[in-house]
Specification:
This protein is α/β, with parallel strands linked by helices. It has 10 helices and 12 strands. The chain has helices spanning 14-23, 44-56, 94-110, 134-154, 171-181, 192-196, 205-208, 212-219, 253-262, 277-292, and strands at residues 2-6, 28-31, 33-34, 37-38, 60-68, 115-118, 157-161, 186-190, 223-228, 230-233, 241-244, 268-271. The protein has an 8-stranded parallel barrel, surrounded by 4 helices. Helix 4 (134-154) packs across helix 5 (171-181). It is globular. The termini are close together. The model has no long low-confidence stretch (mean pLDDT 94).
Amino acid sequence: MYLSVITDQIDADLNTALRIAKEYGYRDVELHNVFGKSIEQCDDSEVAQIKALLKEYNCRVSCIASTVFFLCPLLEGDHVSLFNPEFYTIEGGMEEHLCYLKRACEIAKALDCPRVRIFPFRFPDNRSPYFGTDEHIALITENVKKAVSVAAETGVTLVLENCPYSHLPKGAMTIQVVSAIHSDCLKLLWDPANSYRAYKENVPPQYLNTTLSEECKLIAPWIDHVHIKNYTYDPAFEKPFCHTSLRDGDIDFVQLFAQLDACGYQGAVSLEAETPWEETKDSLVWMKEKLSA
């Protein structure tokens, strides 16, 4: 395993983020919010600027964290909305998202990055759970196959992220799409914290009691990228899952790192702290200590 960090978790300015990442011993970075937009919206001149900055700081890109399929309605009549106005994302229907995906793959090739993140479709505001039903999974699979065809043309691997705001919030659910398509161009982006804080009302009963350790063993053969962040659960708050530094949260990442290592995972572990800078800084230090030991 090797260290990575999403640059906008450090600073919105890419130059500043890369400088600080190197100061903390991080060579590999992940790109999402760049120049005030989602990475797949960048034009050729902006990609050239990114490439120059990466060369200046001797950094590599572990993943192009596109927002393809995040705000893309899965069913006709679905209304999807953004959970956080500070999360930069693209919008539109399938055709628009597939066009952006092609652009994301082109950017990945230009930056010598092997993978592009996609999502399993935002859950809608106007339908009731459960969202991860067999019907939904079949339709997501059909659409992701189209994305895989786009990626195959450029030789880029897509990584499908389990996301609590999507139809497939848990890794054990998301893997059904990846295993069904069974392509070298499609793997899993596992975010264990996303699995941990999945909305229970959106999760079918058979997935509710799977522990993170059990999930890791189940999905390990398909994992190609990992995001990490941590939460504490406090029912006293309106939103009971509270972001915190890696060392202070409920998830035992030392145990999960050991399990990933035992399963033979050799990819990036990419920090997506979603915390104020002081806690993000603490997570950068803590993660480097644990993975360098």
